[in-house]
């Protein structure tokens, strides 16, 4: 069965995801990209996985650095997501915070730094598995992506009487 690329992409868009910015530092330069292809893999050891397109500049940066950071964006960080997705092209530079020597997004819900422990080519992407070396976790609600658009989590709070 031949499946249309647009049909497949639209179907996959029905899976709501959080939004991350993947960062690394290679040859003294900081690099970042927006991604929603992230998952927790293992508790012992603490492993996560990211998926990077084989045509993305970030691929070679992570291969060189052998480490990366992941920032889970908060609902008020949509502009940051758009900047690192290339949707804002005004030439501005982002001022990264640092964690464990790695560039991160300040104010994110979670920041992780990771050492690459393995990588696997899978179709037109490469999966990087990283062992978490440092973590910061903050309170707040996540910025989401669903059906090709940014979404916000609306939590109903019940009052106890």
TrEMBL record:
<dbReference type="Pfam" id="PF01613">
    <property type="entry name" value="Flavin_Reduct"/>
</dbReference>
<keyword id="KW-0560">Oxidoreductase</keyword>
<dbReference type="InterPro" id="IPR050268">
    <property type="entry name" value="NADH-dep_flavin_reductase"/>
</dbReference>
<dbReference type="GO" id="GO:0042602">
    <property type="term" value="F:riboflavin reductase (NADPH) activity"/>
</dbReference>
<dbReference type="GO" id="GO:0010181">
    <property type="term" value="F:FMN binding"/>
</dbReference>
<protein>
    <recommendedName>
        <fullName>Flavin reductase like domain-containing protein</fullName>
    </recommendedName>
</protein>
<dbReference type="InterPro" id="IPR002563">
    <property type="entry name" value="Flavin_Rdtase-like_dom"/>
</dbReference>
<feature type="domain" description="Flavin reductase like">
    <location>
        <begin position="12"/>
        <end position="152"/>
    </location>
</feature>
<dbReference type="InterPro" id="IPR012349">
    <property type="entry name" value="Split_barrel_FMN-bd"/>
</dbReference>
